[in-house]
Structures are given as C-alpha cells and as structure tokens.
Amino acid sequence: GAGVSQSPSNKVTEKGKDVELRCDPISGHTALYWYRQSLGQGLEFLIYFQGNSAPDKSGLPSDRFSAERTGGSVSTLTIQRTQQEDSAVYLCASSSSGGQPQHFGDGTRLSIL
Amino acid sequence: GQSLEQPSEVTAVEGAIVQINCTYQTSGFYGLSWYQQHDGGAPTFLSYNALDGLEETGRFSSFLSRSDSYGYLLLQELQMKDSASYFCAVRGYGGATNKLIFGTGTLLAVQP
Predict the structure, then answer these.
(1) Best of A44, A100, A103 to disrupt the B interface by mutation (most B CBs within 10 Å)?
(2) pLDDT mean over A60-84
(3) Burial group, residue B13, by CB count within 10 angstroms (0-12, 13-18, 19+)
(4) Contact, A88 vs A112, CB < 8 A?
(5) Chain B residue numbers touching A102 (CB-CB < 8 A)
(6) pLDDT tens for each residue of B38-90
(7) In what order do the strands lie in the sheet with A75-79?
(8) Could you tell me which residue, B29 or B105, shows the higher pLDDT?
(9) Which residues pair with B3 in a beta bridge?
(10) Where would a tag sit more exposed on chain A, N or C end, judged by fewer CB atoms within 10 A?
C-alpha cells in the first residue's frame, strides 16, 4: 500500500485478555518500529525490527509484551493478560534501513476495561 | 539517558510566525527531527537537521545548535490547519537501533 496500515483501528477488551495488533509497513521498508502514546503524552519507543530481527527490544515494558515480524513485512504486537495501564494508542512506523524519516500509521487505540 | 523538553502549549494568530523550542540532554545523536500530529492522527515527518544550522522547507524551517543543546521549529504564515501537536525527536548513538526518542510535545493553537 501507499502508507503504513494498522489494524484494528480500535480495540476494546477486558482486563486479563490477550490482544494482537497488526502493522503492514510501506513496501520495501526494511525497518519497522512500534511506539506507544498515552493520552496527551509523547511517543514511547517499544521495539525496532530490521528485517525479521529485533536488535532493540529495550522499550517493551514487561514480559507480557512481545512482537514478531515475518517475511520482512507484516509485524504483530501481542499483549498478554492486559492491564488497564496498557490502554494507549499503539503506533507503528516504517523506514528505509537508514532510519530517516519514519512513516507512521494511524495507530490502534486500545482500551482495557 | 536522553530527554527532550518542549513548551507544552503555544498560541498564535493566523498569518503570524511562531517558534517551537526543543532543548535536549543527550550524550550524542545523529540528528534532530520534527513531526506534526493532528488530533487522533498519525505523526508526519516535517524536517530533519543532521548538521547545525537552518533547514528550510516551504513555510517550515528548523534549526539546530549542538553546542547549545537546542533546536527549534519555525512556522511562518500560520494557517488554521497548522493547529496540531509538534514533537522533536532524536536518533541516538549506541547500539544497533534506529529508534527515535521523542520530546514532550507542543500543542499549537492557531486562532483567527
């Protein structure tokens, strides 16, 4: 596609459930990033992929969070046993290997009840 | 660690010029970027300073001074559609990562 695509756009789930968020990057972009943005806050880095490898996972807040990328393209961010503090907008971005600029998707707004 | 500070809110009138500052504390970085985010939307790339000095892109200009640990985004001929949040960001040295560290963000309100 022309831009970064994320799905679903909105997700409401109960505390304790698992959720999967999907990101489809710009075709040809080897680098993919996940960020999190809480209401009225800045963007917080979660994880970075180069190809299918994740050389930087330093932003994942706990072991309930994991991500994978397959075929050098689509990525899935999984949150297990969701907690209310996980409520946020999860943004995916992609870039060429040089890392600049990063192109963002519209995000998934996650609400934990 | 790395931190970037911005004013939380700025208000200006249509047609005016506004400057959004970004001061940072970081051990080193490749360059300073600026992103715009309309309410509920995706952040979009505006400008990048790899070197000290001024970069101009249409109505937007960005400036970096590494010696002063300071940068700014200058918006000229403000339009109502410029009302948005603006974030500075750096890509730091160290490790095999291209991650961006974002500033606290500035909400710009353009008034008629």
Answers:
(1) A100
(2) 96
(3) exposed
(4) no
(5) 45, 98, 100
(6) 988 999 999 999 999 999 989 999 999 998 989 999 999 999 999 999 999 99
(7) A5-7, A19-24, A75-79, A65-69
(8) B105
(9) B25
(10) N
